[in-house]
Design brief:
70 residues, alpha+beta, three-stranded antiparallel beta sheet, globular
Length: 70
């Protein structure tokens, strides 16, 4: 997905993260655990979301050949 058309929300839920990264849910959680993907924030007892700026930075780093936490 082109970063110029990514959603402008401040926080992204898992379905949005999956869509913009083209990663599966289990892959995202595995990469978070391994420190290779930004960790989500707990917004409430039942809501977990990623900071959109963190995911955008990860995507830009991936495009440049680097990864988060590497």
């Amino acid at each position: 997905m082109n970063s110029n058309v990514l959603p402008e929300w401040q926080h992204w839920r898992i379905n949005t993260v999956m869509q913009v990264t083209a990663l599966a849910r289990s892959t995202i959680w595995k990469m978070v655990k391994e420190g290779r993907f930004p960790a989500p924030k707990k917004l409430s007892q039942r809501v977990t979301a990623w900071n959109a700026a963190d995911v955008r930075a990860w995507l830009e780093g991936k495009a440049e050949g680097t990864t988060h936490g590497a």
